[in-house]
């Protein structure tokens, strides 16, 4: 289950968060897709993950989580019926996304302060350059490079939802924002026709400039805020767009969305499109991702592609050229599953016969039968390319 990294962009992304070019050339991959300088960089790569789709949910319900009823404090609690334009709603989303992002980073600084004072790691510190020279534990800022990482989740879900709101609410006026909130609260019960309409609205990952422009602006805003924030270990924060398997767990806790996605379903994996919504082939997916400046994501990203085995084996050279061209356009990472849907369904039904079936999840590979049902369903739902590149 191969994963490919673009050295030129990866190295640039590390330089952009303060790593010297010489050290950036020696990067390694931590666990999934996090890129780091061995022996010199302590980056707390799984420090925090912000669910963009959850921000939208809280906006629709006045800060109330639909999963457990907990109330979260919005930056500005607004009545949906007072919002008259999409631009007004979009600006509100950006403000709330940054609001929860800053809250999270402040909490991370509190946690790092506690780690530095109360959780020394002498063995790890002895293996990290800078700690002995500074006389500091790695948790207290002893490493040469001290970063704290924030990762995104639900990016495609949020962008697809914003596009659906723009079209259904403000352009075609099929539903009002308050009406949509009620429909989302009951998970589209009694609004199946609207759900099908929302599912047909334009989606990220199809080389469509409408959602792609929103994604480009939002990830740029996300990364700019993160990369400019300082941590308590004498360094800065850095940004990543990968989800491990949290897109599945977070999806369970996320309500129905304006994109037409039902409640409790997995969010998109990493920086990939939502499962099954990329209908224009893998070239369109990679064109969409390459429209963003990916050199600002020092903690790595994930873009998934899934091919039918027979098609993949017949078109290896074309797929190679596809990835090489994507990297020339500024792509960061591409990972591939070569497995057909029926095999995955069979493995779900008769796991004892498929113990050796390995799949790529989001940055890591795992035995398919060992994954939870939500994660299995997410992989099955990914678009399966077999007709065109």
Q: Any key phrases for this structure?
A:
389 residues; alpha/beta; single chain; 12% strand; 44% helix
What report would you give on this structure?
This protein has 389 residues and is α/β, with parallel strands linked by helices. The protein has one domain: Anaerobic Ribonucleotide-triphosphate Reductase Large Chain, CATH 3.20.70. The chain has helices at 7-15, 21-24, 52-60, 86-118, 122-126, 131-134, 155-171, 177-185, 192-200, 209-227, 246-252, 282-290, 309-314, 316-328, 341-349, 373-381; strands spanning 3-5, 28-30, 34-36, 41-42, 48-51, 145-153, 236-240, 304-307, 333-338, 358-360, 365-367. The strands form four sheets. Strands 4, 5, 6 and 7 form a four-stranded parallel β-sheet that branches. The protein has a three-stranded mixed β-sheet with strand order 1-9-8. Strands 2-3 form a two-stranded antiparallel sheet. Helix 4 packs parallel to helix 10 (209-227) and helix 15 (341-349) packs antiparallel against helix 16 (373-381). The mean pLDDT is 96.
């Amino acid at each position: 289950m191969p994963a490919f990294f673009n050295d030129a962009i990866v190295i640039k992304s590390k330089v952009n968060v303060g790593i010297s070019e010489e050290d950036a050339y020696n990067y390694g991959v931590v666990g999934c897709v996090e890129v780091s300088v061995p022996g010199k960089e302590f980056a707390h790569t799984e420090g925090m993950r912000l669910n963009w789709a959850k921000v939208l949910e809280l906006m629709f319900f006045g800060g109330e989580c639909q999963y457990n009823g907990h109330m979260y404090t919005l930056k500005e609690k607004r009545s949906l019926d007072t919002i008259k334009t999409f631009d007004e709603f979009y600006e509100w989303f950006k403000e709330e996304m940054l609001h929860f992002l800053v809250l999270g980073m402040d909490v991370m600084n509190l946690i790092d302060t506690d780690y530095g004072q109360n959780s020394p790691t002498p063995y790890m510190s002895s293996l990290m350059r800078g700690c002995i020279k500074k006389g500091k534990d790695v948790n207290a800022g002893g490493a040469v490079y001290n970063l704290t990482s924030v990762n995104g989740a639900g990016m495609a879900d949020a962008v697809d939802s914003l596009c659906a709101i723009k079209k259904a609410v403000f352009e075609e006026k099929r539903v009002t924002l308050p009406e949509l909130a009620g429909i989302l609260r009951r998970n589209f019960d009694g609004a199946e026709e609207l759900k099908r309409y929302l599912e047909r609205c334009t989606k990220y990952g199809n080389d469509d400039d409408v959602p792609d422009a929103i994604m480009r602006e939002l990830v740029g805003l996300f990364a700019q805020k993160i990369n400019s924030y300082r941590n308590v270990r004498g360094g800065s924060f850095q940004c990543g767009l990968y989800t491990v398997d949290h897109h599945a767990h977070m999806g369970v806790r996320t309500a129905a969305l304006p994109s037409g996605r039902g409640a409790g379903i997995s969010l998109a994996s990493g920086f990939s499109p939502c499962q099954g919504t990329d209908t224009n082939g893998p070239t369109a997916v990679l064109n969409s991702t390459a429209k963003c400046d990916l050199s600002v994501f020092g903690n790595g990203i994930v873009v998934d592609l899934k091919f039918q085995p027979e098609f993949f084996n017949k078109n290896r050279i074309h797929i190679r050229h596809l990835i090489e061209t994507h990297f020339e356009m500024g792509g960061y990472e591409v990972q591939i599953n070569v497995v057909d849907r029926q095999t995955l369904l069979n493995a779900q039904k008769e796991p004892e016969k498929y113990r050796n079936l390995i799949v790529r999840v989001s940055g890591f590979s795992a035995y398919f039968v060992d994954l939870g049902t939500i994660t299995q369903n997410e992989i099955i739902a990914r678009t399966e390319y077999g007709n065109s590149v």
